[in-house]
Amino acid sequence: MSDLLENPKAGRVRAVAALSKKDVRAETGLFLLEGPQAVREAIEYRPELLRELYVTPTAAARYALDDAPVDTWFVTEQVLDAMADTVTPQGVVAVCQQFPTSVKDVFPDAGAGLEARGGLPGIVAILEEVRDPGNAGTIIRAADAAGADAVVLTGRSVDPYNPKVVRSTTGSLFHVPVSVGVTLADAVSRARGLGYTILAADVSGDDLPEVRADGMLDGPTAWVFGNEARGLTAEDLALVDRAVKVPIYGRAESMNLATAASVCLYESAFAQRAAHPSTGA
Fold this sequence. Notes:
Distance between the termini: 42 Å
CATH superfamily of the largest domain: SPOUT methyltransferase, trefoil knot domain
Structural class: alpha/beta
Radius of gyration: 20 Å
Helix content: 25-40%
CATH architecture of the largest domain: 3-Layer(aba) Sandwich
Number of helices: 13
Order of helices and strands: HHEHEHEHEHHEHEHEHEHEHEH
Number of domains: 2
Oligomer: single chain
Largest sheet: 6 strands, parallel
């Protein structure tokens, strides 16, 4: 633990704060991690990615971060506020190395089989032009919770290392592989080559319970989720096997993208466990 950092305008402080900008993240290969829960997840699951940790003395004691396995600095509240993207970092900010997964690892050239997937078919979420950081982060979190194998963000989607995306994952970024930069056509082609059924969440589609009743969720499934405002284009929908909508039984005008994605991913998880009861969790 170093001496207390007290100057909010110090070069080190400015360098950390600059990671809120996409071009700086791209240049450095680093990203900002804020809050004790996210930092704890990084320490437990991917400690080798941590580069620097900044904590107030109070937060270090409260969250038992005094002996974190990374270079650690005590800072004042003013310094932490200058570093953080959020107004409530809870006394903890870290710098991490980015770690995107290659799309070739998400969809390898040869099928891995059920055994390599823990006995269950695969679930992958593909985000096409999803621009809202909160939605992207929440979908990553939902994919993690539903036991999905990976999340793929096309080159038209938000940067997964955007601070708001990272916060919205609440640590799930360290649990589920996230691939970036691929085109939708390439991701779909790779998934189909491995036997995935490609489904698109779209208001023009068939009701989700109907699709599940047809058995289309029982095997490996890649879900495609589109832009919050425009959804998926006709060209996008032409790539998939079936468009699916989450029915609205109440009076809501529509459903938030991340909420609909969560329902779709969990429906796949439920269907796969029902179809493969001897291998489910």
